[in-house]
Amino acid sequence: MDGFGVGEDEFEVDGRPVRLLSGALHYFRVHEEQWGHRLAMLRAMGLNCVETYVPWNLHEPRPGVFRDVAALGRFLDAAHAAGLWAIVRPGPYICAEWENGGLPHWLTGPLGARARTRDGEYLAHVERWFHRLLREVVPRQHGGADGGPVIMVQVENEYGSYGSDQVYLRRLADLLRGEGVRVPLFTSDGPEDHMLTGGSLPGVLATANFGSAARSGFGTLRAHRPRGPLMCMEFWCGWFDHWGADHVVRDADDAAAALREILECGASVNLYMAHGGTNFAGWAGANRGGALHDGPLEPDVTSYDYDAPIDEYGRPTAKFWRFREVLAPYASGPLPEPPPPLPVLGSPTTAALPEWAPLGTVLECLGTPESEHAVPPTFEELDVDRGLVRYALTVPGPRGPYPLRVRGLRDLAVVYVDGERAGVLTEDEPVLESPVAGHARVELWVESLGRVNYGPRSGESKGICGGVLHERQYLHGVRARGLRLDAFDVASAVRQVPVAGAGEGRPGLYRGTVEVAGPGDATLALPGWTRGFVWVNGFNLGRYWSRGPQRSLYVPGPVLREGGNEVWVLELEGAAPEAAVTLS
């Protein structure tokens, strides 16, 4: 039999048994010019396959408006050229510590809990998306007329951690088949009874996700599926970081021992992550704390290094070499050596950003039209995916000073009263420190720190989702205006934002030029800045935040050029008066 298949107890390629040694590498977290290098690193580690998610919200920013879906096809071609098979995980939900788990804000906003179910309106959007997306997958299936790397396609993602709608899962599987997917389908869930019963599908290969205790995990999987190949679809060999928490590291020897146990079980494996990359452009998601993932917001940092065997800069780590030792005996021949390292920046340079425009001016030039509402609209109602919203309202007067409180704040608000900064509010601290007397003008600049990507609160709205209260009285009549991050994608528009002199650390958009000799991979440090976003030559590096643990941003070498490089910093809270940026 030609092609890739699922045998009684093992995978088969062209009728021969094969063990999948795969690694997760997300094309959307790596600069396209560096895909080839990262894929070669996977081969050198001993892998024969690459796995990637597909983020729906990245590719369909508005209903029926598609943006570079062909990137997936180009990545699959690059994987094929590198001699790797490919596993595609199209969702529609992906988790992946990605904004909203990959679901578009325009979908989850109006649908709420109907998303990820058999709901007809939801599935109609999925059908339109899959019809476009699968054009990049179907012609690239292994064993097809043109040949290709794709050997498996996933149905949903860890659905048993969220729901139990078997009708929905079957509809997705039928949709994939109807669009021409003929390679094996699979599901992946945690090795727990409720997850496997909720997330697996009769007649579809079930796989398990875990970071250790392989024999126990596979034992649970076997109790549900006595036959079929064993595979750990996500071997969590590292972990991700949250803003304000400690950096997470997993010992290389411990991770290698866990990998060896998986292989000793006769199983296939997908390293999650083999190379994590970066949450460029503010696409990092967020989690909810607590055992039930229903607690405080825990936003994810920009780096998705994941303590992976190949680090954010594409360099081999100690874990890489330990994994290579474990994987080498399972290879069909000697492993290739790692490719030469990519160029790095020739010399460090520090530069001030002398041009500045206040946030209000930036909003006037790049924001959505202002609209008036009885109560504060959510980000979703204003069609803001990533970015911030300015809510303006009036405290009537005359009246005495009372506490000002925001109900349902998601996630962070810098508050101004009569033009003067009055404080910063969060979901956990929603009351201004000083009472407000009327008559007063109040502005709340509310920022999304990333939509929840996992658990029962995934898909929740952003912005002011309850209301603004003065004492116990709701304040009505709210003017709202959004600033989407993709408004900065058009460099010519950003350059037209009028400069208002030196910023001296005030919130706003800072601009300047950094001279570079010998461009290559670099690190951007922002000492003295508080929180915001950075663009280099129009490329959005992502969010920075002084609370850590991430202290600098990765700059891919292809972003830089010899000579002058334009840098924009959107500071949202305030910086040191002499704050500069350093490339090194």
From TrEMBL:
Record domain Beta-galactosidase galactose-binding: where: 507-565
One Pfam short name: BetaGal_gal-bd
Span of domain Beta-galactosidase 1-like first all-beta: 376-477
Alphabetically ordered keywords of this record: Glycosidase, Hydrolase
UniProt xrefs under InterPro entries: B-gal_1-like, BetaGal1-like_ABD1, BetaGal_gal-bd, Galactose-bd-like_sf, GH, Gly_Hdrlase_35_cat, Glyco_hydro_35_CS, Glycoside_Hdrlase_35
Ranges of residues in domain Glycoside hydrolase 35 catalytic: 11-327
Family the entry assigns: Belongs to the glycosyl hydrolase 35 family.
Name of the protein this chain belongs to: Beta-galactosidase family protein
Upper classification of the organism: Bacteria, Bacillati, Actinomycetota, Actinomycetes, Kitasatosporales
